[in-house]
Amino acid sequence: MRDLRLGLASKALLLLCGVLLVTLVGLISFNHDNLKSFFQLGRAQVIDNQQYQLQKYYRDVFARLQGVTSSQSYRFDSYQQENLPAIFDSFWQDLRANTELPVRSIAVVDPLEGLKYEFGYIAHSEKALEWMLKDPDDVQAKWILDCPLSCRIIIATDLDKMEEQGSYRIFYSIDSLRLLELFPASQGSHHFLVELNDDNSLELLYAESAFREMVQDLLVGLNAENIIHGVEQFNTEMGLTELHAFKVNNTSQQKPVYYAIVNDINTQLNQLKRADYNNLLFGIGALFFAGAIVVFALSPSLRRIRRTIDNLPLLARSSHNLFRRNLESNSKRFLQDESDELNHTLIRLSYQLEALEQQLKSRAEELEWVANYDNLTDLPNRRKFERVITQMVKEKRYGCLLMVDLDNFKYVNDISGHGAGDEMLRQVSSSLERLLPNDTLLARISGDEFAIYLEGTSLAYSEVVAQRIISMLAQVSVPGHNIIHTASACVGIVAFPEHGNGFEDLMAKADICNNQAKELGKNCVVTFQAENSDTELAKKHYWLDLAQNAIERDRLELHYQPIMNNKLNKVEHYEVLLRVRDENEQLHSPYQLILAAEKNGQIDKIDLWVVQQALQQMETNLRNGFTDKLAINLSARSFCSEKVIARIAREFVSRNIAGDMIIFEITETAALPNMKQAEEHIRRLKALGCAIALDDFGVGYSSFHSLKHLPFDYLKIDGSFVREILNQNEDKVFIQALVDIANQLGHKTVAEFVESEALNNELINLGVDYSQGYYIGKPASARYFWQFDKASAVLALQGT
C-alpha cells in the first residue's frame, strides 16, 4: 500500500482550517449558549412580568371595588334601618349601570346577623359562604375563586356605617370569563384555569372562548407535572409555545387550581435561529477568507520550496553548478523568509558537498590502493594477489606460483629494530622487480613473504628463476645495530593445474614447500612433490588443530628435569617441560605444537595452562614437604602480553604461593624488541618474589646489551657451546668469559646439555653455578621425583 502524500501547503491549509473550524464551532456554540441564556432570561422575565401584571390587575380590581364601596357610605348616613334594602338595591342598580367590571352579584354581610342582602345571580359554594361569613380579622384573603357552576371571583370590601351599627361587608361576584378577558395580556399569550384531579388528569375550568377548543386539545397531551413545572417548548396550533402556571391559593375548590399562560415563542426562536445562521455564515466566510489569505501568503514560498525540491536531484548527479544557478535565480526577492534561508543553506551545502566529493574521490582512490597494495613496498598485497590468481585459475591460465619466505627476518627486527627490517623488505622487493619481467605478478603477501606467479612457464624454468632469486637476495645487505644483515630466503614452487585448482590449495602447498626448505637448512628451493603432499598437509592441519584443542582434549602433560647446584652438589630446582601425548599415548616434543600455537594465536592459552599446572604441582609439593623450586618457560608473546602477566600475578595470590619458589625463563627474542616493556614485566614478576632466567644465551645474536639493562638472576648457556668444550677451546674460552661477566653482574650461570661426568667437571672448573642435562637427570613426570606417600611417612616419623 502506497503512503499518502500531502503537500506542505495542503497541510498548512488543513491545519489552519481545522483550527479555525474548531474555533468557529466553539464561538457558534458559545454564541448559541449566550443567546439561549438571554432567551431563557427574557422568557423568565416575561413570565414573571405576566404573573406580576395579573396579580396587580387583581389588586387594581379590588381597589376599584373598595373605592366604589367606600363612595356609597354617604347613602347610609340619613336612612333608617328599614330603608337599607332600598338603598342597597339602588346601589346595585347604579353599579350595574355605571361600572365596566363584569359584576354578576353582590352580597351584604352584617357582622352580627350574617348574610343580610343578595342582589343579582347568586350561586355560592359552601366553602365560599363559609369564607364570607367569617370574621374579617380571621381571614387575610381579600378574594376567592369560586366555581360552583361557572367560575367567579368573589371580592370582599368593607362598608363603614355611621354610629354604633358597625361595619357591613359587601362581596362582589365577578365573572371570571369576562374578568380575565379584560386582563391586558401581551400579544400571543393566552390564559386559562385548570384543576388537577387526583389521578393527575386535568380539568379545564376556564379558557378564553375563542381559544377554548384549542386549549381543550392542548390539555390532552399534558399532565399535572407539565402544569406544575411548566413546559419550555411544545407545538400547538399557534406553533411553538411555552406553558407556565402558578397555583391559585384562594379558591373554594377541593382540588388544586392553577392559572396557566400559554405564550407564542415562534418569533423569539426564529430570531435565535437567525442569529445562529448569521454566525455560521460569518464563520464560514471568515474560514474561507483566512484560507485564501494563507494560500496567498504561502504560495510564493511554497513554490520556491517546490522548485528547490525539484533541483535537489542535481546534487545526487553532482551537477553542483547547475544546482546553484537554479537556486540563486530562485532567491532574488525583496521580502525573504525561511525558504530563502533554505536556498542559501543548500547553496553552501552544495559547495561543501562538492569539496567532500573531491575528497572522497581522492580518498576512495587512496583506499583502493591501500586495499590492494602494500604501503611499504608498493607491491600488490595478498588480497589483490588472491583476486588475480583466482581469475587466472578460472580462465585456465596455467603457470607456476613461487612463495619466497625470508630466513631469520625476525632477528633483523629484534636486533636492529623495525627500521632495518623495513629497509630490507624494500631492497628485497626492488631486487625482485629488477629480476622479473615487467608483466610478472609479484606481491607481498605477509610480513616476510613474497609471492610470484609466472604465467605460461614450466617447473624447470621456475626452478631456474627461484635459484636466481636466491642468488640475487644474497647480495642484499642492510646496516643494523653493530651488524650488517644479509638476506636469504626459502622458495617453494607449485604448478597450476598440476598441484592444485584453487588459490588456497596452491598457497597451502607452497607453504609446505617452504617449511620443507627451512627443515633442509634454509636458503634453498623446494618444488612441490605430489607424493608427500597429503602427508605434509595432514601433518600441518593436525598440529594446528591440536594447538587449538590440546587442553580440552587433555593431550598435554608436564615433565620435570633436575638442575644441579654445582657448589653444593645438590639438585635445588627443576625445569618444567611440556610434552604432547598422541592418540597412541606416546609422548612427543612440543616443538611442532608450539610453532602451530604461535601461528594460530593459541600460545598464550598454552603458556597459562603450563603456569597453572606447575603452580598446582608446587602446592602439592609444599603440602608434602618438598621445597624444590620450579623453572617455567614463557614464550615471547606471553611475556610481552599485559593480560598474561596480570593473570600470572592473580594465580600467585589465589594459590598463596611465595614467588621465590618460581623461576621464569625467557629468551632474548622476547626481551629485545621492547626493552622498556621487558624491564617493566621483569620487575612485576620480581615484585612477586620470582627469579628470572635468560634462556639460550649465546646463540643467534647474543646481545650483551640486555645483560646491562635487564635485571636477570640466571643466564642459561646454550647447549651448542657446552657439548664440545672438551674438544673446542673456543667454546671453553667463550664460557669462561661469560661466567666472568655474569659474576661481575651478579648473575648465576646454568649450563645446558651436560651429558657426561667429565663435561660436568670441566664446567665446575670454569665456575658454572648450575648444570642441567641427561648426566644430571632426564625429564620425567612428577611422581618420579616426588614420592608423596613416602614423604608423608617421613614427615610423620619426624613429628614423633
UniProtKB/TrEMBL annotation:
Entry coiled-coil feature ranges: 339-366
Protein name, entry field: Diguanylate cyclase/phosphodiesterase
PANTHER family: CYCLIC DI-GMP PHOSPHODIESTERASE PDEB (PTHR33121:SF23), CYCLIC DI-GMP PHOSPHODIESTERASE PDEF (PTHR33121)
Annotated ranges, domain GGDEF: 397-530
Keywords annotated in UniProt: Coiled coil, Membrane, Transmembrane, Transmembrane helix
Molecular-function annotations in GO: cyclic-guanylate-specific phosphodiesterase activity
Record domain EAL: where: 540-793
SMART domains associated with the record: EAL (SM00052), GGDEF (SM00267)
Pfam families in the record: EAL, GGDEF
InterPro entries, alphabetized: Cyclic-di-GMP_PDE-like, EAL_dom, EAL_sf, GGDEF_dom, Nucleotide_cyclase, Rev_trsase/Diguanyl_cyclase
Annotated TM spans: 12-30, 280-298
